[in-house]
Amino acid sequence: MDTYTPSRTRHAVTRTPEVEGLLEQIDRLDEKTAQEKMLPAGCYTSPAFFAFEQAEVFSRTWICVGRVEQVAQPGDCLATEVASEPVLVVRGDDGDIRALSAICRHRGEVIPCAEAGKKVLRCPLHYWTYDFQGRLVGAPRMGDAEAVQRLRQAVRLPSLRLELWHGFIFVNLDEKAAPLAPSLAKLEPLWAGYEATGLKAMPPVMSDTPLPWNWKVHVENFTDAYHTEYVHIGTHDFAPSVLGDDGVRYMDMKPGDNAIVRSVPMRKPGGGMNSGGWSEDSAFPAIATLPPEQRERITFAMLPPSLLLMMAPGTIAYTLIRPAGAEATLAGSDRVTYGGWLLPQSTLDLPDLMERCAAVSAGGSKIWAQDVPMNRGMQASKHSRFSPDGIYGPLETTLPQFNLWLLETYRRAMAG
Ligand code: FES
Ligand SMILES: [Fe+2]
C-alpha cells in the first residue's frame, strides 16, 4: 500500500513511435558526433518526448527543490513538485528533513503543507492525517478504533530519496539512484571561501507563468559563453568570455559528472551585479574569505536538469528550473522573478539591503530581457524544416558537455 513504483507507468508513457524514432537518432550518435552536433529538434518540441523525459530524466535524476532555510525549524514544510509529482519536504521533531509524496493514501487527494505550528499533514478531502514521517495518524469515520489502528499500521506516505548539498535540497524519485554528492565533487573546492563566512538563502520566487520554451533551451542559454558578447552588449561587458590572453575557462566533464562549469574573468576583481548588469560596483559586497581567483572570476555551474548557479564574489545566485511541458518551463531566480541569492550575514545586515536586492534584480532583469527573444527564437527554430544540425565553436564547450550529459541520461533510460 505504501510502496511507490515510478516504473509502473514508465514504458506505457515513454515508448511511442515518435519517441522511439528520436531515441534511434540519438542512439546513432557516438561520443564524438554528440559533441559536434545538436540533438534532434524533436527533443525540444515533442510532447511524447517530454513525457519520456519526465519519466526517465526528471524522475531518475536529482532535482533541486529548494534550500534548508525554507524548512529551518521542526514543523516547517515546503510544498513542491518533482517530475509533476506533488512532494512535501518537511522537517520533523527529530530535526531531520524528509521528502514525502503528497498524494493521500486514501483516494489520492493532494495534501498541502501543514498549517504553521501544527506538526501534522492533513488531507483536505476527508481529513486523514499523517505525521512528518508520513505515518497515518488519523482517519475519521473509517470504522472502530481497531479498524483505524489497522490502517495506521498499514498506511504511510511514500518517503522519497533526499540529499542535502551545501544547503540545497535535492529529491530523487528513483530509489536506486546513485548518490548525488560524488557527481558534484569537482565543485567542492569552490565552496570553502563562501562557507568560511557562512551563507544564508533568500530563495527565489518560482514563476507561475511558464516560459515558452523547452527546459533545455533555458539551460543552454545559461551555459553558452559565446552569446554574451553579442546579446548582452552593455550588461555583460564587464565579464567577457574573451579578455586579451584570458577568457572563459572550462572544467572537464567526465562520465557521471553532474556539473557543467565555466568561469569568466571580470575586468576588475570584486565586481558583481548592479542595476545595469555586471559591474565593478557590485551591489552585494565581495566576500572577504574568497581566494583571489574567485574574486577575479564568475563561475557559472549548471547542475542538470534543475539548478543553475552563478558563483560571484558577492553572492551565489541560483535558478531553479521546473519543466512544465515540451515548450513550457517554470523558473525562479533574480533574472526571471526575484531572489535566489546566497548571502553572508554581513550583507544581510546592511541597512540598505532591500535597495541592493532591487539593484541586483534590476540588473538581472536587463540581462534576462536580452535573453528572452533569443530563447523564443531558438525554440521557434526547432519547428523549422531548416533547423540545422549545428556547429559548435571554441566558446561553446559547455554545450557539447551538456549533450554528453543528455546522451548518458537517455542511454541509461534506453538500457531500462
Ligand atoms: S483522499 Fe485524502 S482523506 Fe480522502
Ligand atoms: Fe544570456
UniProtKB/TrEMBL annotation:
Cofactor(s) essential for the protein: Fe cation
Residue span(s) of domain Rieske: 62-171
InterPro entries (alphabetical): Rieske_2Fe-2S (IPR017941), Rieske_2Fe-2S_sf (IPR036922), Ring_hydroxy_dOase_asu_C_dom (IPR015879), Rng_hydr_dOase-A (IPR001663)
Q: Name one GO molecular function term.
A: 2 iron, 2 sulfur cluster binding
What are the entry keywords?
2Fe-2S, Iron, Iron-sulfur, Metal-binding, Oxidoreductase
What Pfam families does the entry give? Rieske (PF00355), Ring_hydroxyl_A (PF00848)
PANTHER family referenced in this protein's UniProt entry, alphabetically: CHOLINE MONOOXYGENASE, CHLOROPLASTIC
Question: What is the official name of this protein in its record?
Answer: Ring hydroxylating alpha subunit (Catalytic domain)
UniProt organism field: Enhydrobacter aerosaccus
